[in-house]
Design goal:
Number of domains: 2
Number of helices: 14
CATH superfamily of the largest domain: Electron Transport, Fmn-binding Protein, Chain A
CATH topology of the largest domain: Pnp Oxidase, Chain A
CATH architecture of the largest domain: Roll
Strand content: 15-25%
Largest sheet: 7 strands, antiparallel
CATH class of the largest domain: Mainly Beta
Structural class: alpha+beta
Distance between the termini: 46 Å
Oligomer: single chain
Number of strands: 23
Length: 483
């Protein structure tokens, strides 16, 4: 059964022995980060800080997705591959013309019919309502993560907006620096859906309504991070993942609908043309992202549960909690890439590269120059456009084994022949790029070279023991007493 809310997920984690309650008084300024960083890097458990030194005293839940076991528990599957084909089916259905009519005709899509968000009139997230002068974000246990951060940041917000012209909903996750009691930054990356909604609103000279949910059920949290194609509804994806519609409720001071079972909701707006310096912020690259001007979110209403739990994460030098969410996305969305590029066998978005900096991909090589075709195709696909370095290997290479992949890279690559440079869009947080948001990329052909690719001699065979010897030694191995 789907988790109705964050509370149920926390109970499930505790039942599985995957959560620790901490009752020692701990500050949300730096101290929660230091504890969580140590726990995450040691492969430790989810944490619930029950005695947080903030005016509200609300508990803080963190590292809930900090292992593959907990990610699978969050998405309620034994293996992520179980969901991969479902994700493919979901995306294909979303792109179908006349979807509702086809739902009646295609049996395999009947499940989709009951996954649309369900509007409700009463919601746990509106048990307490604070408006206007009563709004004070400084009362909440919002984390200041690193010493040079510009202030406290909301790190797991589900930011909901609507396209000003089409009305299409977007729910994304963008960090939010708290400036004062009722304003925050809105760190919309240029390539993301929320940023596009704001660009359109600015061109129209309109205020854009924004609402932010904190502490929704785990499927909603994951959906907000998923790299969906433009105009596909993350709340629909959440319902699909949890096999149950997401209850949504209309906000009190704007017309945005948010997950009804969230712990907190911040309602408000961003004005066209208004900017304020946001950052620096210790980011997932392991470096501080620099200060820059971003839109300002004005909070007109703060609603919450009577006894809310503040859900947060921290980012920094990997591995961090986001590594496991990123690897889940890699597995779940690989079939989409394979659908468009059937020659792709596997892909590894390296945690050490922050996912977009270093990409290993293996292919079933079929013709000269095939590796170059694949790397350029990947640079043309959705958020893969932000990949800085792509390394393409033959199908027999296990790209999940970094040591093995590096061995092939070192042996198969002639730099002048096999390295390709190009230019294109760069991630907002890439501090090394020649220009902000734009710079150089590298593709490396790590495949075995063919004569038709200009290789003028025989490619050597790998060293491998003969099978008969291996089988004989397998039979007597236990008698040798070596290990």
């Amino acid at each position: 059964m789907a988790y109705n809310d964050l509370n149920e997920f926390i109970k499930a984690l505790e039942k599985k022995g995957q959560l620790i309650r901490i009752q020692e008084p701990i500050s949300p300024r730096l101290e929660i980060t230091e504890i969580t960083d140590r726990v995450t890097k040691a492969g430790g458990l989810a944490l619930l800080f029950e005695n947080v030194l903030s005016p509200s005293g609300h508990p803080v839940a963190i590292n809930l997705f900090g292992s593959m076991e907990r990610v699978k528990l969050a998405l309620e599957v034994q293996e992520l591959d179980e969901l991969a084909s479902d994700i493919m089916e979901f995306l294909e259905a979303q792109g179908t013309e006349g979807l509702m009519e086809k739902l009646k005709l295609i049996p395999k899509l009947k499940r989709l019919a009951n996954m649309f968000p369900k509007k409700v009139k009463k919601a746990p997230c509106q048990e307490v309502v604070l408006q206007h002068e009563d709004v004070d974000l400084t009362q909440l246990p919002i984390l200041t993560c690193w010493p040079q951060d510009a202030g406290p940041f909301i790190t797991l917000p589900l930011v909901v907006t609507h396209h000003p012209q089409t009305g299409k909903r977007n729910m994304g996750m963008y960090r939010m620096q708290v400036f004062d009691r009722n304003t925050t930054g809105m760190h919309w990356h240029s390539h993301k859906g929320g940023a596009e909604h704001y660009r359109v609103a600015e061109k129209l000279g309109q205020r854009l309504a924004v609402s932010v949910a904190i502490g929704a059920d785990p499927a909603c949290v994951y959906a907000a991070t998923a790299p969906l194609p433009e105009d596909m509804d993350e709340l629909f994806l959440a319902g699909y993942l949890r096999k149950k519609p997401v209850d949504i409720v209309k906000c009190i001071t704007n017309d945005v609908y948010v997950p009804a079972n969230a712990q907190y909701v911040l309602e408000g707006y961003v004005e066209p043309g208004e900017r304020k310096v946001e950052g620096p912020f210790g980011d997932h690259t392991g470096f501080y992202s620099l200060a820059g001007e971003f839109p300002v979110f004005h909070v007109t209403c703060l609603t919450m549960r009577k006894n809310p739990i503040y859900h947060a994460t921290i980012v920094g030098r990997p591995p961090m909690e986001d590594a496991f969410l990123g690897k889940a996305t890699e597995r779940l969305f690989l079939p989409i890439i394979k659908k468009q590029l059937p020659e792709v066998v596997d892909m590894n978005l390296l945690i050490e590269g922050g996912f977009h900096n270093i990409v290993f991909v293996s292919i079933d090589k079929r013709y000269p120059g095939h590796a170059n075709k694949v790397m350029h195709a990947l640079w043309g696909m959705g958020q893969m456009m932000l990949s800085k370095m792509i390394f393409v290997f033959d199908k027999e290479v296990n790209v999940q084994d970094v040591s093995e992949a590096l061995w092939y890279l070192g042996n198969n690559v002639a730099p002048r022949r096999d390295i390709t440079f190009t230019d294109g869009p760069m991630d907002e947080l890439d501090h090394s790029a020649e220009m902000h948001l734009y710079g150089s990329k590298m593709g490396v052909d790590c495949t075995r070279k063919w004569p038709k690719e200009g290789f003028d001699r025989d490619w050597p065979e790998e060293i491998r023991m003969s099978n008969d010897v291996k089988q004989k030694i397998d039979r007597i191995w236990h008698k040798l007493g070596i290990v």
